[in-house]
Structures are given as structure tokens and as C-alpha cells.
Amino acid sequence: MSRLSWRWWSRSRKSRDETRLASERFEGTDRRRLLQTLSALVGGGALAAVSRPAKAKDSSDLPPPKRALTGRDDAGKSVFKSFDVTPKVVEIDSNPGLTFYELYMTEAVPQLSGLEPDPMLAGTKAFPGPGGTMFRLISYPPKRPEGWKPPPGVTFESALKEMSDKVPGMGDHFERGAPGMHTSDTIDYGIVVRGEMTLELDDGAKVHLRQGDCIVQNGTRHRWRNPLPEPCLMAFISIGGKRG
Q1: Which has the closest alpha carbon to 176: 192, 191, 198, 161?
Q2: Exposed/middle/buried for 143, CB within 10 Å: 0-12, 13-18, 19+?
Q3: What is the distance between the alpha carbons of residues 98 and 235, in angstroms, rounded to a whole number?
Q4: How many CA atoms are closer than 13 Å to the CA of 130, on its beta-carbon side?
Q5: Regarding beta strands 197-200 and 78-84, do their DSSP bridges make them parallel or antiparallel, or are they unpaired?
Q6: pLDDT per position in the chain (244 positions), as tens?
Q7: Reduced to 3 states, what is the DSSP secondary structure of residue 167?
Q8: What is residue 65's DSSP assignment?
């Protein structure tokens, strides 16, 4: 082999060896570092996507909840009577954003023929009597900004009257000397469906409820306050009882 050929072969082999070593280093430490970096970036992006709060929506942007009502046909087969917004939706004009979705109610021991008419077609009421039940959703307006005022002409008494007119007897349960405080002869099962809510009892005792949190109200005096600048949707099942 000539000297020139030897130099070319030696340089070529050295170049291939350096390339192989560089590749091995990349396959080893450098590749691990690259994968770690990519993992951190992807993980960080995923974490940011999960932790980033969803943009608050106005209540008017949210579709009204639907109710699936079941029953039986003449042959005794179970059927869907309807799947739509309840026919009894009550909006309180004196407190814009406060909306009652009246879903169902029973009195005493319910009959289960499946042929019963939708009780909400006949109207609603504040709370059931002993042994009765009431199922409703309530959408509470966002926390009012500082300086907010009710619509023109609205007073505390007129607001309670409107509530009693639209949900018969509801305003009668609210105290005049402590706005928002009310009591009913019911056990109330409640769950926060969307948003957050503060439940206040006597002596200012409070608990902060987040989405999915539940309450059992044993006929106790209380009031609700929405702490967020977005609506809160709560579900309630009230069971009529007798005051001990």
C-alpha cells in the first residue's frame, strides 16, 4: 500500500471511528439527556394544561340542564316520557341569575305505576310536607361586585314576594332581620354540581364547598353565599319532616 493510500485509509478509518463513538455517546448519555428534557417539556405542558383554570362562563352561556323522565307504557314496558328541560323553570327577576329548575316532587308515599303525570306541569312549591320529596337544581348568581345594586324598584320585601309568587311560600321561610337566612322543616341533601359555594350556619360558622362536595341539612338555619365571580349550580333533594 502506498504512503498516500495509507494516509487516506487511516484518516477515513479515524473519521468512521469518531463518528461511531459520537453516535454511541449520543445513544448513551446524550440520548438519555434529550429524552429527559423532552419528558420534562411534555410533562410540564401537560401539567400546565391540567392546572390552567377554565375560563369562567356567564350563566347565559351555559345550556340549561336537561331532565330524563321515565315511566311505563300501557304494556308495562319502561319508557322515556321526556328528555328535555323541565317545564318548570323559575327565574327571579329581583335577583338576576337566581334560577330554580324544578325537577320533580312527591307527597306521602309515592305511587309507582309509571303512568303518573309529570307533577311539574301542575306547578311547584317551596318545600314538601311530611314524607314528601322535592328535587330541584338552583343556579346562584355570581358574587356581586362592590357597589352592585338590585334592579330599579326592587326592595327586600318585594324580592321575597316575587319569590313566594313564583315558588309558592318560598319567601315566607326567609328572615327579615338576617337577609338570606332561612329554615325549613326538611332534610336537604345537596351537592355542588358546578362552581363553589359557602354555607353559613348560626354564629357565623361557615364551610366552603367545591364542585362535588355534599351537604346534609337537618332542618337547620342557614344561608348560601357564592364566593366566586361565576355562577354556582347546586342540586337539592328535600324530604319533608316534622320539627322535633
Answers
A1: 161
A2: middle
A3: 14
A4: 4
A5: unpaired
A6: 555 444 544 555 555 555 454 444 545 555 555 444 434 433 333 333 333 334 444 455 678 999 999 999 999 999 999 999 999 999 999 999 999 999 999 998 888 999 999 999 999 999 999 999 999 999 999 999 999 999 999 999 999 999 999 999 999 999 999 999 999 999 999 999 999 999 999 999 999 999 999 999 999 999 999 999 999 999 999 999 999 8
A7: coil
A8: P
Taking the C-alpha atoms of residue 215 and residue 209, their distance in angstroms, rounded to an integer, is: 9
Sheet holding 223-225, edge to edge: 206-209, 197-200, 223-225
- The one-letter code for the residue type at 58 is D
| Cα–Cα distance for residue pair 168/161, rounded to 1 Å | 9
Q: CB–CB of 143/125 below 8 Å? A: no
User: What SS3 state is found at 214?
Assistant: strand
Dihedral angle sign, alpha carbons of residues 174, 231, 192, 130? positive
Task: Specify the amino acid at residue 99.
Answer: T
* Angstrom distances, CA of residue 15 to CA of 19, 29, 90, 178: 6, 21, 82, 88
The count of other CB atoms within 10 Å of the CB of residue 230 is 18
Neighbour count for residue 116 (Cβ, 10 Å): 13
Q: DSSP character for 58?
A: -
Q: If we measure between CA atoms, which residue out of 158, 154, 162, 140 comes closest to residue 226?
A: 140
- State how far the alpha carbon of 140 is from the alpha carbons of 102, 176, 231, in Å: 14, 20, 6
